[in-house]
Each structure stands twice: as C-alpha cells, then as structure tokens.
Write a structure and sequence with these properties.
Elements: H1 2-12, H2 18-23, H3 28-39, H4 42-62, E1 69-72, H5 81-87, H6 93-96, H7 100-105, E2 109-116, E3 122-128, H8 134-147
Antiparallel strand pairs: 1-3, 2-3
Helix pairs in contact: 1-3
Length: about 160
C-alpha cells in the first residue's frame, strides 16, 4: 500500500518542487515517499493501480453488510515529538496501517478521541464508512460523543 502512496505523491511533487525536496523542507518521511514514487516504473504504477482497485472493490463488498466500521487509528498511543522524530526516519507502516487503506480506497473516516494513555495523551478511534457514507460516520461519531466525554478532556501539555 505504501508503494501506492509513493506513486500518488510523485506526480504532485514534480521538478518544480525539487529544491524544497533536496533542501529537507519536506522532512525525511515525505521526501523518501516522493523519491520512491519517482523511481518506480510504469509497470509498478499499473500494478499499484490494480491493487488499489481490487482492494477498493473488496471493501465496497464489505460495506454491503455494514454501515460503519469502528477501528483503531494506530497500534499504539500518539507518539511524543521525540518519538515522532524517530518514527519519521524509519519505515512507518505500523503507524498508518489502519488509516492509509481507507484513504487509498476513498472511504470517509472520522477520528475521535476515545481515552487517555498513562501520559494523559488521547487515544483515538476512527469510524469508517462506505464511499459517500459521510452522513453515517458523522451520525455514529455524534452518538459516540453523546455517550462519552473524551472529546471534552484535554491532553497533558507537558509531553
């Protein structure tokens, strides 16, 4: 899936953006994704489009039987700035494994706070709907917020 992200990014950051890319203005993570996409062949682009199309169709079939999915946003709590800087220099597949697939498939998603970790940093969940299912995820999110108070709590500013 990350190859598809790279291939999507590369045309958006054409030659006109090269000075910003080489100066480090975009940061190491975005720069590496753009560079990976620029280096791939047309065959890889076709394969990525086919993979995306297949996944999107399978997901569409799943949503024939359900209105909204409730899934985590990440596999761990929100990283601190220091932790994020480390993540940005390493493969970040685990960080985006629950968000990128829905972004690539074009499904709407709503992220809301759903708890606090031991550092008093928000934990998040996401409501994912079928294509054009914004109304369903907004209704589910509003119902969740009526039943909880996580959206009224503030994180620890010392982290």
């Amino acid at each position: 899936m990350l190859l598809t992200v790279s291939l999507d990014l590369a045309p958006s950051f054409n030659v006109a953006f090269t000075p910003a890319l080489t100066s480090g203005e975009y940061g190491p993570l975005l720069a590496s994704l753009i560079e990976q996409g620029r280096g791939e062949s047309a065959l890889e682009l076709v394969r990525a489009v086919q993979l995306r199309h297949s996944f999107t169709n399978q997901l569409h079939k799943v949503f024939r039987n359900i209105d909204v999915m409730l899934i985590p946003v990440t596999v761990w709590p929100i990283p601190t700035v220091e932790e994020w800087n480390v993540l940005a220099r390493s493969p970040f597949t685990e960080l985006v494994r629950f968000t990128v697939p829905f972004n690539l498939a074009g499904n709407p998603a709503l992220t809301l706070p759903a708890g606090m970790d031991d550092r008093h940093i928000p934990l998040s969940i996401q409501f994912v709907g079928p294509r054009l299912g914004e109304e369903a995820i907004l209704a589910a999110g509003a119902a969740f917020q009526r039943c909880t108070n996580w959206h009224t709590r503030r994180p620890n500013s010392g982290v």
